[in-house]
């Protein structure tokens, strides 16, 4: 499974690349706003940083959400953004115009991440339209007591049944349990915030055991 960082904070991304060998980055308007930098400036900075580590690591960059009902505007923006970095994947929503834009861009060799997916049928149609990634949001669904593991499993089965090449990128992940659920369900990728990974990678029992080992170490001769 690949781990992506959901952020537009350059310092967080650098840390995740250096310490965790993160496999990619996803951004969205909220993260860009939190960066305090202009949209084009920060996404190009992220693209350059990620490319320094690996040309294969992707950066998902979202189109203007106000264009969700105008596929021609989405296509035009996608064509503007894609050449800015070889690592860019262009994000657009699972709307009728988003699917249409996905089909146009993917047919021209531009990779697309279909985001804000909340049902298997949305995922299926995105796959049909040539999506490179499909991003199901599970945190929001679980908040409303919906079963996210079955949701992911159905998408994986649909993809495998028909041989689509779309990778399933599970988003809105809020804790380590959800990361594991996505992995068990067969998702290709999860994307999480910096704090989610930090909390997931740590465990109080590990710290407790380390404390005991330190005590034994200090009472033992090294040579």
Overview of the molecule:
With 223 residues, this protein is of the alpha/beta class. The chain has one domain (2-218): Alpha-Beta Barrel (TIM Barrel). It contains eleven helices and eight strands. The chain has helices spanning 10-20, 29-35, 39-53, 71-81, 96-107, 120-128, 139-143, 148-162, 176-185, 194-201, 204-218; strands at 2-6, 24-26, 58-62, 88-93, 112-117, 133-136, 167-173, 189-192. Strands 1-2-3-4-5-6-7-8 form an eight-stranded parallel barrel, surrounded by seven helices. Helix 4 crosses helix 5 (96-107). The longest helix has 15 residues, at 39-53.
Number of helices: 11
Query: Strand tally, please?
Result: 8
Q: What do we call the CATH homologous superfamily?
A: Aldolase class I
Task: Note the main sheet.
Answer: 8 strands, parallel, barrel
Structural class: alpha/beta
pLDDT under 50 segments (min length 5)?
A: none
N-end to C-end Cα span? 42 Å
Short description:
By secondary structure, this protein is an alpha/beta fold.
Write the layout of secondary structure elements.
Layout: E1 2-6, H1 10-20, E2 24-26, H2 29-35, H3 39-53, E3 58-62, H4 71-81, E4 88-93, H5 96-107, E5 112-117, H6 120-128, E6 133-136, H7 139-143, H8 148-162, E7 167-173, H9 176-185, E8 189-192, H10 194-201, H11 204-218
Parallel strand pairs: 1-2, 1-8, 2-3, 3-4, 4-5, 5-6, 6-7, 7-8
Helix pairs in contact: 1-3, 4-5, 6-8, 8-9
